[in-house]
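Sample pair:
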Amino acid sequence: MDIQPQHQLEKEGIMNGILELFSRPFPIMEDWQMRWVVILFHGIFVAIFLVLFKPFQDLFLTDSFFINVGFGLVVSAALAFNHFLISNILPFDLKKWTIGKSIAWTMYDVLTVIIAVFIYKNYWTDFAAFTWNDLWRISYSTLLLAIIPVMISTILLENWLLRRNLRRASQLQKTVQKNVQEQKPAVIAQQINTNNADLLTLYADNKNEWFKIRPKDLILLESSDNYVCIYYLDKEKVQKKLLRSTLTKLEEQIDLPAIFRCHRSFMVNLHQIKQVKGNSRGLQLDLLDLEQTIPVSRKYVKEIQAKLEQV
């Protein structure tokens, strides 16, 4: 039997960790107004910095106030071109945006800005001074100038996402508390009747295995590789049941408004929600009978609000 050397295992572990990091979900600016704020901020910062500090005078022609302001306009125009034209042309799935995609897009932004700045700078000299060394110096200088506005805009985006998600979490929490206070007995009785005839039956892929449960006892369904782990209450204790299936296939078998898919890996009983929390990455749910925080995908945020108002 072949045994891999320790250093090779360590390298594979590092690579797997990097790939896992790059594949993690990452928040994106879906609000076009916030995009404009960030884009204009980059341009204004560049213009003010060049006017006040006049760095790289031989490179950026910083003796001219209007040319310096023009550099800021070029930066904003290049970013606007990417975020309002290219992003709509390319087949991006913003709902599956990841850290890796965000890094790649940022690198593309920087490359576009470098090219735009290089063309704009040489426009004033009729491209007479064009050299590859000139391109390298502009690339290096642009990267240095980009560090501060990128850091500031990242902090601004983080704070904006945090405030937005806290506001959404607060709205959902009010709905949860209202449901708990009212209890809506008639609706709940209709949706999660305890008669055996109304038991929920979930079938595995082979159809020879199934699991029956009262909907009111169902807590959570969690996808795990080729299986789905079902968390449920039995005599007031949390139990688990594994079914060989996908969450999508089980979702098709469940026709209950109170059982809602809130994430690609989770379906939750909305009556189990104890608290809705928010941070810059999104919303999370705390449950009554399970000590596990459940994430809510961005695409389900509006739908979960409507579902909570129904149950």
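The mean pLDDT is 83.
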